[in-house]
Amino acid sequence: MSTIRGYVRKNTAFERLIGSKIFWTLFVLFTFSYPLIKSINRTLPPPLPKLYKVPEYTLTNSFNKPFGSKDLKGKLYIAGFMFTSCPTTCPALMEKMDKIQKRVRGLGTKIALVTYSVDPDYDTPEVLFKYARKRHANPYVWTFLTGSRKDLRRTIIDGFKVPMGEREPMTGNVNGEEITLMDIAHSEKFVLVDWNGNVRNYYQSDKNDINRMMIDVGLLINSTEKR
């Protein structure tokens, strides 16, 4: 209630309400308890299925050292496929992997990124080393692998169950001029593998699927599954 030169004005119901201690007590309780209740009642997505186990393999990394499934045991990893002289899809795929590397930075050694070359004739360890440095790949997180064609095909085709073709000519038109480039068919998907070598899911390289993969990575890392 307020007084102006003898005039007495009664407070409105709203003014009396916001001046009440009970109102503010209830307001604070609701404000802080609602998000908690909502999070408790939130339904988490079902666990990712274990599609199959990737057979053990040993290839060669960009430091010309043996590297394979035993080195990855105990951590999640995201597998991708490319070759350094790729004239078509690989540059865009590697840009996506660059962004993934930044997004998993806070996970330390709980996760690894592994890129498999489908062109072992050209992609020697030395070539992959220079390529990795050019991409600013963190060697503690992101590994580039090559090897014999036989071992790569067994790992990529039989292990991850994705394609790996042979080097073939591809004709295209650039600025009105027809040119021929060499291409190798390979998967443009990313593969999420768990700490026991089980493939958990495949993801397209578009923004929505990569975001979905990042969510799945977080759920797996924070899960109670036996490692």
Percent helix? 25-40%
The H-level CATH homologous superfamily of the largest domain, spelled out, is Glutaredoxin
Mean pLDDT, nearest integer?
A: 84
Shape: globular
* Elements, N to C (H/E): EEHHEEEHEHEHEHEEEEH
* Secondary structure tally: strands: 12
Question: What can you tell me about this protein's structure?
Answer:
The protein is an alpha+beta fold. The protein folds into two domains: 2-41, no CATH class; 52-221, Glutaredoxin. It has helices spanning 13-18, 21-41, 69-72, 90-103, 125-134, 149-159, 207-221, and strands spanning 2-4, 7-9, 52-53, 58-61, 66-68, 76-82, 111-117, 142-146, 164-174, 177-186, 190-193, 198-203. It has an eight-stranded mixed beta sheet, with helices on both faces. It has a two-stranded antiparallel ribbon with strand order 1-2. Strand 6 (76-82), helix 4 (90-103) and strand 7 form a beta-alpha-beta unit.
Brief digest:
The protein has an 8-stranded mixed β-sheet with strand order 3-12-11-6-7-8-4-5, with helices on both faces. The protein has 7 helices and 12 strands.
Question: Main traits of this protein?
Answer:
7 helices; Glutaredoxin; 227 residues; globular; alpha+beta
Spell out the blueprint of helices and strands.
Layout: E1 2-4, E2 7-9, H1 13-18, H2 21-41, E3 52-53, E4 58-61, E5 66-68, H3 69-72, E6 76-82, H4 90-103, E7 111-117, H5 125-134, E8 142-146, H6 149-159, E9 164-174, E10 177-186, E11 190-193, E12 198-203, H7 207-221
